[in-house]
Automatic annotation (TrEMBL):
Residues of the DUF427 domain: 15-105
Organismal lineage: Bacteria, Pseudomonadati, Pseudomonadota, Alphaproteobacteria, Rhodobacterales
Organism annotation: Mesobaculum littorinae
Protein name (database record): DUF427 domain-containing protein
Pfam families: NTP_transf_9 (PF04248)
Amino acid sequence: MSDKITISPASGTWVVRAGGAVIGETTTALRLEETGHDPVIYFPRADIAMALLESSDTVTRCPLKGEARHYSIQGKSGAIQDAAWSYESPIEGAQDITGHIAFYADKATVEEI
């Protein structure tokens, strides 16, 4: 089985919550499916309260998507370190997630409402 990603519109309304706050809500989310991983919902930055996120020094690399910059959520109880990531300049085949941000399931709640 070869590694592959598929990006498609995520129907419905999606919300992300963390640190006792709603971080964002959108009707234009993207669903990214990658071989061997659970699907991930990507939110347009315009639908995220970016004032609650702070860029961290963490950068990771995916051979299918490129380099990801990580963000910490500044919540009421303090920072939730590296809770989100974004591919600022994804590689060919993943360009649709440009301008979007995703959240780690163990640090934020992402759900369809």
